[in-house]
TrEMBL record:
Name of protein: DNA methyltransferase
GO biological process, one term: methylation
InterPro entries, sorted: DNA_methylase_N4/N6 (IPR002941), SAM-dependent_MTases_sf (IPR029063)
Record domain DNA methylase N-4/N-6: where: 42-95
Methyltransferase among keywords: yes
Species of provenance: Jatrophihabitans lederbergiae
Amino acid sequence: MLNQTLDDADRAMPCHRHDRALMPGALDFSASGHLYATHGLHAFAARLPPPLARWAIESFTDPGDYVLDVMCGSGTTLVEGLLTGRHAWGVDIDPLARLISMVKATPIPSAAILELADEIEKCLTVSTLDGSWRPALPRLSYWFRDDVSSDLARLKSVIVRTTGEESALRSLAWAVFSSLIVARTSVANARDLVHSRHHYREWTANPDVPGRFLKQLRRAARQMQDLEDQMPDGPSVTARLAGNDARELSIGDGAVDLSFFSPPYVSALDYPRAHVFAVAWLSDVVGVDVDQYRTDARRYIGTDRAALAEATTAQPLPPRTDWDLVDDVVERLSDAPEKAWTVHRYFRDMAAVLAECARVTRPGGHVVIVVCPSNIRRVRVDTHDVFAQLAPIVSAGRLEVEDTYARTIHDHRRVMPYLEQSFGERMRTEYVVVARRTGHREVRGT
């Protein structure tokens, strides 16, 4: 494997479909200019830069090809697939992420959205609207003022009244509803709720739920119009959900041309902790209540919940995997069994993901992974190197790592504080691991 940095000027990337050199800093994107089309419709922690998804799509596929993101998060890859004329499939274990992804990648005429906003505004003026419903969220009155809860309940009833069941407009309205809660300035009594380490922040005055919703919905109309305007002419392409577990894909062998994804860090952001407030209010929409959502969170890749679930008296530490880089990290964390098990489970899960990506990617296609190393109790975890080691092993030789590219993550783009004295040096380099699916490309049937 060739480890390249982006400072290696004018070195062309091998095996591209397009003859384009990778110039210095080509993957170091600024923090601005990323909210075009529907990318800014809903806040989402650790969101992938849209230009990075576009780079992978345009480098390794042609228009009309099939792109799969097995950890699609807020749908960045799906949107970029549409904008570049590719069919885009998404998989994500989080039900709120699946809702957001499909909303952002489902074009809706802006006129229909504006008409809905006018109708909802009119309905919200009715004084007899029932605002008594409350979600089954522990400590609800602590996290939501009672008048805010009433406003949210009334808004929810109006959305049901003004939108058709299972319609794209209704899904959009729910996503906008969620965006009022999962936000840096949430209508909940929480600061920076978009991230898992949020803190209590009490509203001293009503934050105007209806006004915020209508503003966001009308903004969504402009975003949808921008999505439509930027979609290329030519054969129609679509985005769809293709499952909810990257470890067990319900996708046929060789069905996609590119598998591109950005997995969570080891000991990841706790998405369920950030999303649980919105999930509580939308439990009937996303099909899971708070208790089940928190139980399901134990299965998220990268989670440190229930870290010792597999530990026993006879096996207090994880067994060897015979993957040298994984076993080395686990051994160095032997004085912290919970962290050792978290690392072990993470890479065991990711081995299954890599194997599935190898299976569903056609021969000659690519699997591209964007990942950052981690520090766990001051033990460095070079995740990109582990993936490069695992890819050919777990895929029975079907994945051949071609290159690893480095890109800088600038501190000014960070949104969360970090204590280097406690956790170790902050990672400022992210890696793009490019693997080719071995074999000859087969011609698709018509």
